[in-house]
Write a structure and sequence with these properties.
Number of helices: 22
Number of strands: 13
Distance between the termini: 53 Å
Shape: globular
Bound molecules: glucose-6-phosphate
């Protein structure tokens, strides 16, 4: 982060310390209009923040000093910005809808490959949806089980729930990720082998959880249908690893590929989205990609002062580095977005949870805020208390859709009233005098006073559709990218995840060996011994 540019932001934070959001609105009612913008079907109101024109200008300088313009171009044009893995970062190519677009990696245009896989996915999902893809006993597919974890699971789950109104209702979709056998066992209780399609989704096709679950599912299927040959009709793969797919027993004809320049947590618009495409159909899937593409274009071309991902990123940095806000909350007021906070958690925390800069030196500031959230209004009846009156500063993104897919009486008006009211209450609070005027007894006044001055962003779309969902995901993807650029960290590697993959293998052998090695620390050795005793080893 450019020290000089940050100093200016810091100076303004100090200067404005006494000013609340309420003061800022009193001074400048025009801010609601000025601090709002539209992109790709989304309206962002960021006026309820602790900002004025000078702070924004200083924040924009921070982006400029980080060379953001060039970094954006490097990403979109396939430069190897994931340097620790020596890879390009091209999830934007996956949804590039320009038929003439050429995007080159190592001198080779990746777009023909992208279009080819999309077509293969479309043809395959058509045959499944139309009942032309027959299971081993000749029955049509009714159940689809995606087996994957992390980036090969969170996106498909989130989007399948989000786009339920567009989903083929006479099919059922399941997602098995955890290596906890309960996850698979409970799923298999819900499906019938002869009508089930398993999609094994794994970029590497070596991930312990996914491969164990896939092997177990394969064994179950063979047992249920009584013939090994059944696997070919009930298993397909989404992967970059042809050899491993074939070794598992899946015909590579039924493998949908992607590339090492697609990061796991950015892979939803790749073949990893196959389960979603089967659910909503290829035309809706195309609209989903179009939403992404619209936000991509906005991000690449809009000037930073009117650029939605850039503005969200800068506000996040203001609170995280300037006000010490360790976390931020994402609060979708739409039940269909119930898994969106969990999806974002991976995208943000795995990308920017980095402690060294691009030169390998410890970063002298904190990076990677903790992202969390739940759908409204449920959160209001649990953790909002802490946001309103607790001692932590937690900036919130409220997300809402003006129209519901399920109009029932006045429920939707009530839902949206709650959203708007929360942002109002968080910003403006309630003073002691206002409490007294309401007749609150003096001794209760401190408890019923709301400090306010809590920052929020409000994101509104007309309706949650494949297109607006795609745009929303891209918005946060680019926000995370911008923050990574400003913090000067590598956002596209994940050595922490790799570590977990290696460590578990060492412990597993000690759980199952005749005699444990005893090579761990005293605590881990005791835990291993206790487990072994309980399971009779
Ligand atoms: C994502 C991470 C991680 C990854 C999973 C699954 O960015 O790298 O969450 O997606 O570990 O990996 P595979 O797809 O290779 O099974």
């Amino acid at each position: 982060m450019d020290a000089q540019a940050w100093e200016k932001v810091d100076e303004l934070i100090d200067r404005n310390q006494e000013k609340t959001i309420k003061d800022l609105f009193a001074e400048d009612p025009g801010r609601a209009e000025r601090y709002s913008l539209e992109a790709a079907g989304w309206y962002l109101d960021y006026s309820k923040n602790r900002i004025d024109d000078a702070t924004l200008k200083a924040l924009l300088k921070l982006a400029e000093k980080a060379g953001l313009k060039d970094e954006i171009e490097k990403m979109f044009t396939g430069k190897k910005i994931n340097a620790t893995e020596g890879r390009a970062v091209l999830h934007t190519a996956l949804r590039n809808m320009d038929p003439k677009a050429k995007v080159k990696v190592d001198g080779k245009d990746v777009m023909p490959g992208v279009r080819k896989v999309l077509k293969a996915m479309g043809d395959f999902s058509d045959t499944v949806r139309r009942g032309q893809w027959k299971g081993f006993t000749g029955k049509r597919i009714k159940y689809v089980v995606n087996i994957g974890i992390g980036g090969s699971d969170l996106g498909p789950v989130m989007a399948n729930i989000a786009l339920t109104p567009y989903s083929k209702r006479n099919m059922k979709f399941f997602f098995v990720s955890n290596v906890d056998s309960t996850h698979l066992a409970e799923t298999l209780r819900e499906v019938k082998a002869d009508q089930t399609l398993f999609i094994v989704a794994s970029k590497t096709f070596t991930t312990q959880e996914t491969m164990s679950n896939a092997e177990a599912a394969k064994a179950w299927l063979v047992k249920e249908l009584g013939d090994k040959k059944a696997v070919a009709k009930h298993f397909v793969a989404v992967s970059t690893a042809e050899k491993e797919v074939s070794a598992f027993g899946i015909d590579v004809k039924n493998m949908f590929g992607f590339w090492d320049w697609v990061g796991g947590r950015y892979s939803l618009p790749s073949a990893i989205g196959l389960s979603l495409m089967i659910a909503i159909g290829r035309n809706n899937y195309k609209k989903f990609l179009k939403g992404y593409y619209k936000m991509d274009r906005h991000f690449r071309t809009a000037r930073f002062a009117r650029n939605m991902p850039v503005i969200l990123a800068l506000l996040g940095i203001l609170y995280h580095n300037g006000y010490g806000a360790e976390s931020y909350c994402v609060l979708p007021y739409d039940q269909y977005l119930s898994r969106f906070p969990a999806y974002l958690q991976q995208m943000d925390m795995e990308s920017n949870g980095k402690g060294v800069d691009k030169d390998g030196n410890p970063v002298p500031y904190t990076t990677g805020p903790i992202e969390w959230g739940e759908p409204g209004t449920n959160g209001q009846h649990s953790f909002y208390q802490l946001i309103h009156q607790g001692t932590h500063l937690i900036p919130c993104d409220f997300i809402g859709c003006s129209r519901t897919h399920n109009p029932v009486g006045d429920l939707h008006d009530k839902l949206m009233a709650n959203l708007f009211a929360q942002t109002e209450a968080l910003a403006f609070g309630k003073t002691a005098d206002e409490c007294r005027k309401e007749g609150v007894p003096e001794k209760l006044v401190p408890f019923k006073t709301f400090e306010g001055n809590k920052p929020t962003n409000t994101l509104l779309c007309d309706e949650l559709t494949p297109e607006t969902l795609g745009a929303l995901i891209a918005l946060y993807e680019h926000k995370v990218f911008v923050q990574g650029v400003i913090w000067n960290v590598y956002s596209y590697d994940q050595w922490g995840v790799q570590l977990g993959k290696v460590l578990a293998k060492g412990v597993l052998s000690d759980l199952t060996a005749k005699k444990p090695s005893g090579k761990h620390d005293a605590s881990t050795n005791r835990l291993i011994a206790r487990y072994r005793a309980a399971v009779g080893r």
